[in-house]
Design brief:
Helix content: 40-55%
Oligomer: single chain
Mean pLDDT: 90
CATH topology of the largest domain: Leucine-rich Repeat Variant
CATH class of the largest domain: Mainly Alpha
Largest sheet: 4 strands, antiparallel
Structural class: alpha+beta
Distance between the termini: 29 Å
Radius of gyration: 17 Å
Strand content: 15-25%
Order of helices and strands: HEEEEHHHHHHH
Number of strands: 4
């Protein structure tokens, strides 16, 4: 995930320095984030720059033979969040903007559930503030961890906000068994 200080000019400069060729622009829709797709100098490797309006972050993904090397190059060229910064960013749920970014990092950077990650999401899903629960539900949709089932069931069954109950029910339907 790119740091929030990264600008489009920074991205364009890195693209030029690295020889990435912009091959496609996918505008955002109600169901999919906007994406810029780049062909990389590495054979059969594609770089995706995703501007995700739901999470409110920009992140990078790569596919192909040299995906790992390409992501290392991105980390060198552009300031990225460290995967462990979610801990400090989620320390205070009252600071919604850092909290949102922390949950996004946790959801995007963790291929599977960790005990600390599950505890963080569970605390957010049980938080008294609906804004915090909303952020947690949005981020949890990117982290379909079966370990979140009990917390999501509680939101579905007991949340005073009907839209949050419905969102939790939708997430539960998508969780693997």
């Amino acid at each position: 995930m790119l740091r929030e200080s990264v600008t489009r000019d920074d991205i364009d400069d890195a693209m030029h320095r690295c020889g990435w060729q912009l091959t496609n622009v996918v505008p955002p829709t109600g169901h999919h984030p906007g994406q810029l797709m780049f062909a990389a100098a590495q054979p059969e490797t594609v770089l995706y720059l995703v501007q995700d309006l739901r999470l409110g972050v920009i992140y990078v993904a790569a596919m192909g033979q040299s995906a790992a090397a390409l992501l290392d190059q991105v980390r060198f060229e552009l300031p990225c969040e460290d995967a462990d910064t979610w801990r400090e960013l989620t320390a205070d749920p009252q600071r919604l903007e850092p909290y949102r970014r922390g949950l996004a990092i946790l959801a995007l950077a963790s291929p599977g559930a960790s005990q600390a990650g599950v505890e963080c999401f569970t605390a957010a899903l049980n938080h008294p503030e609906p804004n915090v629960r909303t952020l947690a539900l949005t981020a949890a949709s990117y982290a379909p961890w079966p370990e979140l089932r009990p917390a999501l069931e509680q939101v579905r069954d007991q949340d005073a906000q009907p839209e949050l109950s419905r969102a939790a029910a939708q997430l539960l339907e998508q969780l693997p068994s």
